[in-house]
Amino acid sequence: MSETFVACRWTRGNRFFPIKIEITPMQVIKVKRTLFSSDEESISINKVASVRIKKGLIWSDIWIESSGGSDPIFSHGHHKGDAQRIKELIESIQSQYRRGAEDIGVSEEATKKCPFCAETIKAAANVCRFCGRDLSG
Ligand SMILES: [Zn+2]
Fold first, then answer.
1. What spacing in Å lies between the alpha carbon of 109 and ligand 1's midpoint?
2. Which of 1, 34, 102, 118 is such that its CA lies 20 to 30 A from the CA of 131?
3. How far is ligand 1, taken at its centre, from the CA of residue 135, in Å?
């Protein structure tokens, strides 16, 4: 699962080899190609401190700042919708990380098997959340 956003060719600096921003579940990668080389910068998603969008009339500029001491990623000339999507994607992946950390906490809680449907439920449950049967008696 990754999404790639390409800067518009009609903007400054993107005429022949537009900058590509790739968002994967692990990192944000900026790929800048030239005739002779391909230059990549990346920041881990969980190190992204902030995503700032500067909206122009048609195009948006994006700064992705890192809390890990590496240089921010700057990209110029993205469609407004793309810039917004990049910000949303990064923020949703970050919140999934946080939720993931909470899930690990939940799974450490004591569990038991429901005697009726055999699903795993919390040991303290009085009602099975799968079949809805009363377990208190
Ligand atoms: Zn059950």
1. 18
2. 102
3. 9
Q: What percent of the chain has pLDDT over 90?
A: 58
Residue 126 to residues 108, 109, 113: CA-CA distances in angstroms? 19, 15, 12
Query: What is the CA(121)–ligand 1 centre distance, in A?
Result: 8
Q: Which residues surround ligand 1, an ion (CB under 5 A)?
A: 114, 116-117, 128, 130-131
pTM of the model as a whole: 0.69
Please give the pLDDT value at position 11: 78
Mean pLDDT of 97-124: 80
Which of these CATH numbers, 2.60.40.3500, 2.30.29.30, 1.10.3470.10, 1.20.120.450, describes 3-107? Answer: 2.30.29.30
**pLDDT score recorded for residue 105:** 57
